[in-house]
Amino acid sequence: MLGLIMRISYRMAVAVLVLMLPAAAFGQNATTREYPYLYKSPRAMGMGGAYMAIGGRVDSLFYNPAGLINIPKDKGWEVNLLNLNATASQNAIDFTKDLRDALDTGDLNGDGSSNDDQVKAVNNLLAANQGKHLHLSVTDFTSIGKSDDKFAFGVGGLAVGKLDAIPHQGFGSAGLLEVDANVTYGGIGGFSLALSEGFFAGLSAKSLHRESVIHTFTAQEIVDHQDDFGDYLKDQTRETGNAVGFDAGILWKFARDSWLRPSVGLSVMNIGDLDFKAAGVLPQTINVGIAVNPNIETFRSLIFGLDYVDITNNYTEDTDMAKRIRFGGELQLFDIQSVEMAIRAGIYQNSPTFGLDLRLLTFLFSYTQYTEETGAYAGQDQDKRHLVTFNFGW
Description:
Layout: H1 2-24, H2 42-46, E1 78-89, H3 90-103, H4 115-128, E2 134-147, E3 151-169, E4 175-196, E5 199-218, H5 219-224, H6 229-236, E6 238-253, E7 262-269, E8 274-275, E9 281-282, E10 285-292, E11 301-308, E12 325-336, E13 339-348, E14 351-360, E15 363-373, E16 382-393
Antiparallel strand pairs: 1-2, 1-16, 2-3, 3-4, 4-5, 5-6, 6-7, 7-10, 8-9, 10-11, 11-12, 12-13, 13-14, 14-15, 15-16
Helix pairs in contact: 3-4
């Protein structure tokens, strides 16, 4: 069943990627300083990205596998049959609408062809959006997991279609769109094991395939291939690669009888780098976090976390400390039978984040807003993004 769902998830991601490209022709810009990643947890991003010492869901596999031990034991299995996330930057939303209009431009100068008019309209649009970072992505992380007092595990299938771009103005009136897009899919699994009272170690492994496009498109290319952009990318600009990666982490819950119930976590992700060869590399990172979970009776749970990622500065984009700091919290307002609600807030790369969850029976709806720093330091080039989640599971 999981294998079938993984194949369906991959096909959905590829379909969305191909559909989005003819409409927007996006990809991750080669000059952007956004840190590379596989998966952004909506829960973590609502809390400003702080998750190293928190975890509690199968998506802990992307932050600290030791955090699997915090999957709620009273709820039994965590099952995500369908876990769709869609993210778009505000710039991309506006640009997509305008690009569709530009490609619908008719024969304005009466020369019997609309091609030149469309090229002019696209050039004007690229000029108007020069230097703006554009981002679109769709992700499915289908997964299952379970925890008890001494052992927890999680396994899932990941399918991601991610596109970012920055428009430029070329020589003369020529417009350019620098692109780096990718589809990544495969399996990931891991476990968390108690080594002593309150001390847990986690390990995870992943096997992934990636197809990427790194290319600078002209306005003429966009117009000429608007009807076959998917095939054009596949035949002319695609790079492919496979990678196997491993992650390790620890979680220490100390002073467990205190009111704050603190914990610390440390993880080493993508040990030795996750190398897709020509299709890209995700570097090894060492990350640390601290969290408190105050013992309150009014609500189900209140959690605060503070993380610092990439201690050794393996991200080559910059060495800025503020971009590596994450802080935030989550308040579970209520959890009664088949209805749950949680709110989150935090600071991510020196910008505020917000998140809201509402679960009704087996359906979860989530909205998260955060700002990704695409410049060399926090506050230089902020890209506001909206993340919407639809989950079917329990």
